[in-house]
Amino acid sequence: MRLKTLLLALCVASTTAFAQKVKYSKEDIKKMETYLFNEGFNAPSPKKTSTIILKDGTTYKGFCNKIETKKGQIYEVAIKDSVTKKNTTFNADQINEMYVYPSNAEKIAKVAKYMGNIRNFGTKKLTKNTNNDRIYFVNQTVSLKNKKDDKEFLMQVINPGFDGIISVYHDPRAKETTGFSVMGSPQLGGGVIKSYYVKKGDKVMWLHKDDFEDNYDFLFGDNQDFMKKYPKNSVEWDYFSFLISEYTAITNG
After folding, report:
1. Which of 21, 47, 58, 142 has its CA 20 to 30 A from that of 6?
2. pTM of whole model > 0.90?
């Protein structure tokens, strides 16, 4: 009886210790709030050469002159060959990868949006809104908002530098948290993206901020060093890009 009581006490003590909140410094919080993902772009430039790589390895280069989407996700692409000027249309299920450049119009709109929120100045880099690098899309089978039948779409990878374990894809229909503005001044607060598509292992899901805590163990629970440093009762959705980056770095040693 005493042994059972002792074991129960030890179990409760260890659970309580594990559940204790970690207090972070202001410097740590500022670092964790820094947005590390690439900006999500929805419109490729029709004036710069795009590259499409099919599942059979065939490569096409040309100008994207037509893109069809469903719920914001690309499922069909038309490209004009840069040499022959011939138009060819591909379905997403034919394409393995695609590299495009962002349109100038969307870059301008994103800069204006960046300047319209004071919070962005401390958490995001303006250079990501004016990105001149190629944007990487990959074929992925996904259920839109975890509600629709699984289908293949071309989805933008927004953490290409640290996507080895967890890949994060842009959600073109994602909403942002709201802030407030006084008399047309730049917005205060808000501006945090509420959802992404996330892949770990063979599982791809639409992850909304409201479901973050429920999926925290799935995303990070296999790394106890990470969980000890960033328990889910001590972090916020606002830190998501940092947490993905840190988890990848700790897991890779």
Report:
1. 21
2. no
